[in-house]
Amino acid sequence: VAGTEQQVDVVTLPAGPATGNADTSVGDSATTVQIVAANANRRGLVCRNSSTAVMYVNTGQDATTSSPEDVLPGGKWYEINGYTGAVNAIWASDPGTGAALCHEED
User: Fold this and answer.
1) What sign results for the dihedral spanned by CA atoms 12, 13, 14, 18?
2) Which residues of the chain have pLDDT under 70?
């Protein structure tokens, strides 16, 4: 409406820290696979097992079905904060029905 214009001050905000967020997908496998590589800048990691087979997870070493750090049935999530090393997984079988779907937050 004419006559109701207002003065607006424009402020340029500094750019935030650069982010290198990454999404990865690694297919289910009956042998150990690295689902995310080491990343010194990682602040957080979330992975979902989209396979019908159970996924076994280990940090910093090969994953095994006999001594996993975490066990994820199909559809379950794995979350870790503050860990920057590699994460490995192995599935109870290799049905070829899914993957480890991971998102890293840098």
Assistant:
1) negative
2) 1-20
